[in-house]
Automatic annotation (TrEMBL):
Lineage, uppermost ranks: Eukaryota, Fungi, Fungi incertae sedis, Mucoromycota, Mortierellomycotina
Record protein name field: F-box domain-containing protein
CDD domains attached to this UniProt entry: F-box_SF
Matches recorded under InterPro entries: F-box-like_dom_sf (IPR036047), LRR_dom_sf (IPR032675)
Transmembrane segments: none
Length: 243
């Protein structure tokens, strides 16, 4: 390490200094993937030199995307092996303006297993559709999303069959009938957190989650004693945590 040469280098022989140099170089090379493993990007983020981004952004596995006033979409193609995506204040605009961001999600769809979306704007339908199409998605958090199109709502149902963790904050669904008697089972779902979601949707998700272990409800979201006894207890026999 540089500290070795600076502080104790004068006490070492030339051969020992060479050995220290080799160790330092090997340490630096081994740490590069970890340095770039998780990064946060936003309009106020100081970016590294272009050559560094070209060389290392493909090593990023966890990306936090904070959009305050927009971000250079030329950076999106540099990410192609993301496993986790955290979206704070999703981008708004025309389909053409959203396309680079949507392409980012689609390009990493086979590797992404965790997506967290937060912020005030409702998630645009095009971005939401790209998220739900990720085949490896296991953990999903959605804040402020409206499912106006029937095929999008059906896609949400199909996605639930793959998820292990689902968090819904202020999600509006247009067709309650889709959630009833659809023949689907959310057999992988282990953790569920709900806030400001239609009570019927809540019950139908619970009814179809036989392996649910953890259920989190906000103070505004309550399940009646009758529904808990008649729906939750028989439908979720593995439930062991209720918050």
């Amino acid at each position: 390490l540089p500290e070795i040469q600076r502080h104790i280098g004068k006490f070492l022989s030339v051969s020992d200094l060479k050995a220290c140099s080799l160790v330092s170089r090997a340490w630096a090379e081994s740490m590069v993937p970890w340095i770039w493993w998780s990064i946060t990007l936003g309009p106020s983020t100081p970016l590294p030199p272009p050559e560094a981004m070209d060389r290392h952004f493909h090593q990023t596995r966890s990306l936090s995307f904070i959009r305050e006033n927009g971000m250079n979409s030329n950076l999106y193609p540099l990410f192609n092996q993301l496993q986790s995506l955290h979206i704070v204040d999703p981008p708004l605009g025309s389909l053409e303006q959203l396309q680079p961001f949507t392409d980012l999600i689609c390009r990493n769809g086979s590797t992404i297993h965790t997506i967290v979306q937060e912020g005030n704007p409702s998630l645009p339908a095009g971005v939401l559709r790209a998220i739900l199409e990720c085949p490896s998605l296991k953990q999903l958090t959605i804040t402020k999303a409206t499912f106006l199109e029937r095929d999008l709502e059906e896609q949400m149902l199909q996605t639930c069959t793959r998820l292990t963790h689902l968090t819904l904050h202020t999600a509006h669904f247009s067709d309650m009938n889709l959630w009833q008697s659809n023949g689907l089972v959310f057999r992988h779902l282990e953790s569920l957190r709900l806030s400001n979601v239609h009570s019927q949707v809540q019950l139908e998700i619970l009814r179809q989650s036989p392996n649910l272990q953890r259920l989190v409800l906000t103070e505004k979201e309550t399940i009646s004693k009758a529904d808990f006894v008649q729906v939750v207890i028989p439908s979720c026999p593995k439930l062991c945590a209720l918050v």
